[in-house]
Write a structure and sequence with these properties.
This protein is an alpha/beta fold and 124 residues long. 19% of the residues lie in helices and 29% in strands. The protein has a single domain, classed as Sandwich (Immunoglobulin-like), CATH 2.60.40.420. The protein is built from 2 helices and 8 strands. The chain is globular, with a radius of gyration of 18 Å. Bound molecules: copper (II) ion (CU).
């Protein structure tokens, strides 16, 4: 009962916002993944959340560091299946792993304990 009322309120306010402002920037919060992808120093962050890498594909230059941060309550790792070798330990919530590719190419990687949890690093 409470939950469905909340859902209605959320959906309702979303519809009002959509109808009310013609295409202005969304300020709904809670979805910071896109803007957080590239830090000021050029490092790229991939968040591990909901048994997925976000963003799933990142494009970097050789020498540009990538940091994976585990935002799930289960362990994850980063192990490449093609391209340059990446092999992290399993790490827990709040922990991170960084890798800096040295040459151009495509790196496909997976989490070894979660089937379907896959990502790609495009190095150009
Ligand atoms: Cu995993």
């Amino acid at each position: 009962m409470q939950r469905s009322l909340l859902t209605l309120l959320v959906l309702g306010s979303g519809a009002v916002a959509l109808a009310g402002c013609g295409g202005s920037d969304s300020d709904s919060g809670g979805d910071t993944a896109q803007t957080a992808a590239t830090a000021a120093d050029g490092a790229v962050q991939v968040t591990m959340k909901g048994l997925a890498y976000n963003p799933k594909t990142v494009a970097v230059r050789p020498g540009q560091k990538i940091t994976w941060v585990n935002d799930d309550d289960v362990l994850h790792d980063v192990v490449s299946t093609s391209g340059e070798r990446i092999e992290s330990e399993l790490f827990s919530n709040g922990k991170s792993f960084s890798f800096t590719p040295t040459r151009a190419g495509t790196i496909a990687y997976v989490c070894t304990i979660h089937p379907g949890m896959e990502g790609t690093v495009e190095v150009r």
